[in-house]
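Regression test case RT-17, inverse folding.

Input:
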């Protein structure tokens, strides 16, 4: 699968998009800028940490 990352600044990816520009993943940041607080894939949201991703039902 081919994809591109969209950035807000030089080191902060905010989305992964497919070759047609469709959003595959969104990266949502809170207080920190080095890693997202959670990742949105389709209708699912995943809590993020440096060590792992955990499935969560964040509203």
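Golden output:
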């Amino acid at each position: 699968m081919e994809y591109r990352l969209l950035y807000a600044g030089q080191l902060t990816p905010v989305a992964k998009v497919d070759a047609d520009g469709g959003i595959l993943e969104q990266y949502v940041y809170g207080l920190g800028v080095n890693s997202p607080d959670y990742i949105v894939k389709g209708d699912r949201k995943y809590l993020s940490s440096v060590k792992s991703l955990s499935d969560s039902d964040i509203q």
